[in-house]
Amino acid sequence: MFTPESRSPKVLWEKLRHAFAVGPTEPLGEEDLALLRDVAEKIARRGLTTPALLALHSVQPLGYISGQVLIASQPFLEIVLPKEKLERLGRILERRDAIETFLRCLELGARN
User: Fold this and answer.
1) Could you tell me the pTM of the whole model?
2) Which end of the chain has fewer CB within 10 Å, C or N?
């Protein structure tokens, strides 16, 4: 039940401060990094680094949604990667730090 004290802006702000906070995540594992490098290499071999960079930069602020878009477009992308790897890549890209790591992999692949 609400009391006058619980309705004060200070108390309300304290309750909302951490409402949307995301806890720290563990770093990407070696298998995840290897998958990101493998996908970046395949993209670079096909000459699609620039469109991939553009797409990733545009969805980077959306984070979680980018992983979901990848999963939704899975039927079209199964030509490039098996279903299991696409699902794993989608889960990886839902992480806040993963898109930045993937962008670095793509940029390094474009230089080589």
Assistant:
1) 0.70
2) N
